[in-house]
Amino acid sequence: MKRWMGVALLACATVAHAQSTPAKKELVAKLLALQAPGIESVARSVVERPAVQLMQGAAQVLQTQVPPDKREATGRSIETDVKKFVEDSVPVLKERAIKLAPTVIGPTLEEKFSEDELKQLIAWFESPINKKYQQLGPEMQSNFAKKIIEEAGPLLDTKLQALQQKVRGTLSAAVPADAASKPAAKPAAAASRPAKAASK
Predict the structure, then answer these.
(1) Are 180 and 33 a contacting pair, CB within 8 Å?
(2) Are 116 and 65 in contact (CB under 8 A)?
(3) In angstroms, rounded to a whole number, what is the distance separating the alpha carbons of residues 75 and 191?
């Protein structure tokens, strides 16, 4: 009988720990506000990953097919286009990320942490609670990045496709006609599916 009472009390304690309350929601909102730089960093990485892949592919084409006298100017032109893509896209994804955080990360924090634990996180003490949060971080970050890609992927894909076409045009204009027929012109298209690559 005592054993069953103990199990029942433990179950009640678990439910109480997971319950959402106005105080808990307020603590989570404060914690998310403190974590805004990290949230924005995830959004930036979602944009930068395909841009880096595209630059790597373009660099290979530059080295193997573009004449030496045209490499520097062509490289600068591509770098300018890629930089503009990142600068235009990052603010959009940052804004979307900040809006998504309460609905994607918030429920996990409410479920996994008590009000006392949330207070300790906000104070950022050196404690086992802090370690617990850090352990949950990669899973939340991964799920959050996937959600950003789902929500903002079409917008990013459209911009990236436009950038890829511009980069291909820049490379085509710089590659001599006899080199254009070689099969090595594919690296610039290596980042054609950034959303899938970034979600892995």
Answers:
(1) no
(2) no
(3) 17
Name, in order, each residue with C-beta under 8 angstroms of 161's C-beta and a sequence gap of 6 or more: none
Residues whose CB falls within 8 Å of the CB of residue 74, separated by 6 or more in sequence, listed in order: 62, 66, 170, 171, 174
The DSSP letter of residue 187 is G
Output the six-digit token pair for 1. 């009988």
Across 99-114, b (16+ Cβ under 10 Å) vs e yields: ebbeebbbeebbeebb
Tell whether pTM > 0.90: no
- Between CA 65 and CA 4 the distance in angstroms is 75
Handedness of CA 83, 84, 85, 88 (dihedral sign): positive
Length of the chain: 200
Decide: 94 and 40 in contact? Cβ < 8 Å. Answer: yes
Select from 93, 64, 106 the least CA-distant residue to 157. Answer: 93
Question: pLDDT for 13-67, tens place per residue?
Answer: 444 445 779 999 999 999 999 888 889 989 999 999 999 999 988 988 888 889 9
Residue among 200, 192, 103, 104 nearest 156 (CA): 192
